């Protein structure tokens, strides 16, 4: 089928009661370009009992119902063809009307769905489509709202290849050749039997044809048929995270009159194997998953899913040392899957955060019993050709899994996935404590007895308490069946089970599907030690909107004797990401990279001197309150603590050339040490030693002199292709280019030329500023602007700030590839 972008020409507004509108209470539509997040531009306010507020879970954005409309022309020559509208994601409870008639719906906000549109259309005329979406107390994190992923119009004949109808697998691979099985689903909506020729070619990355096949298929009216072909590629380049070689397949349908339809798909040739001794193997080599959990939002863009935003996130995560992503807790976008394929990032794609038991007032559990199969089918259909996908997760922290009924649901979902795709493995992110929540009192007593600790001690350390509960006999017994239906036992915060389960369940293969960032050193040691533990996914790789403040540092004071889990308004972010929402790596990221064995240089992080000596209390998701900076005006000669991360034997710290001595570091000291000193502006240097010899050094310098404004684009040229963006990093520095982390101020931007502002903001975890504003404050010396091209030409961004010379950035925009295929 011909595929054309359907993203342009939309309008949106908050939904208006039609009776109120008849009385004159109108709300005008505003023009937008899809992907679009209708929630991110709403004004946030502190909770005041308003039913529309989503609270801290939703970052204090108001929920609501939003309507979209679009007028589009359908040519007369399309009469008699099949026209399908494809929505990659609408959050949530989407309903679609075409020319006033109900055309379809989708309750789940993360599933791709199709609308058979031709029966509702007026050919040779303008048509109107309306989409409603609603978001209201239905999630534990920020979801966004509206048509937040790409939309497409598909046009084909009565006989055609079905949407997503080409599925490629590589069932047999050896040193000399690979079997490539291509299954092509053909539909026939005519009244006649159609016999068609199917010609298939496999191409390597250079476009060279490396295998071909031809066959014939007879398709009865209204009865789809599948042409299954086996092609043989000699000496293929295999796909792996370190060498993500891609192939493509093209399928052409013809009859005696010529071309009928064609379709193509990208895939990778790779094998998967799994056993408790060698763990996960890709192409015969064992691979440990260095995993990042992430949410779907794109920071300052809200939930809007642009291909460039997804690609940028994947590349930054890969550069930070991760080789795997767990999309938490919903199916991943097609754009991110494409990026993972190209860049070489393994994927655990997750179906649901809830089944039949609600976690929020009006969440998907209300629709799950009726829709779960269709949503599993949509996820697998989306993922099937992507070599990056190695595991499907059927859920996250589902309370039911500790009951017989929940175990039955686990089996039902797992078998459904296997029926659709037997080539990959099935997991489930099980939290032992939540699985036995109904027996919480007994569970706590058992955990206390097992650990020889009192309840007060356990609850004072939530990480240890959750682990102790997860390792209890009660959890062992209640989760046994739900774990048994899986290929891989996904464990959230249960690393205490890793060693014991090797004996209790010798065939159990474990994946740390969610773990505390502060425990990565111990967790990774277990991953390396045990073959049956295949990886670790830290919470979380990239910071996100909502679940506000779970990673914020808190200090015990007389006014704050009992810190809270969630933060009050105007907190915006969770604050627990290795990487902040602008893509800047935080100290925790460099620590994790060191633990992974991927970094030899020491890393310096400085605890904020204003809190020196104050007792720190944080959740297990929080890192230390540090900044990689030696610029602390107003704290000259004040006491300060410097953290150093390294895998060396010891590190030496020098302040302006004066040595503070050496301290042990490395694995036996949790890869970190601290120096208690005073702040003296100048240069801070860490030198790492192994066996007495220097192995690396790093330095921080104080920013001095007048503050300068800088702006740098991630790429000088972008295109008009669907989903392309330009990212411009704005920073405050001294004349030598040292980031001035203590000179924050308002920054204003102006966009002219062939582009528009898509988002502007910083990584400030607590702010009432909006991402669609043209003036924002920097945070720790940085801000980020994202621009969307509107045509071929140039985009000019002018940036200004008080007491700084303004700067300009120009980005060229060239024509992108055609959107039709």
UniProtKB/TrEMBL annotation:
Chain ranges of the Glycoside hydrolase family domain: 709-809
Provenance organism: Streptacidiphilus cavernicola
Phylogenetic lineage: Bacteria, Bacillati, Actinomycetota, Actinomycetes, Kitasatosporales
UniProt entry keywords in alphabetical sequence: Glycosidase, Hydrolase
DUF4982 domain: residues covered: 639-695
InterPro entries in the record: Beta-gal/glucu_dom_sf, Beta-mannosidase-like_N2, DUF4982, Galactose-bd-like_sf, GH, GH2_Domain-Containing, Glyco_hydro2_dom5, Glyco_hydro_2
Molecular function GO labels: hydrolase activity
Domain Beta-mannosidase-like galactose-binding: 65-137
Ranges for domain Glycoside hydrolase family 2 immunoglobulin-like beta-sandwich: 170-270
Transmembrane segments: none
Protein name, UniProt field: Glycoside hydrolase family 2 TIM barrel-domain containing protein
Family: Belongs to the glycosyl hydrolase 2 family.
Residues of the Glycoside hydrolase family 2 catalytic domain: 280-435
A Pfam family matched in the record: Glyco_hydro_2_C
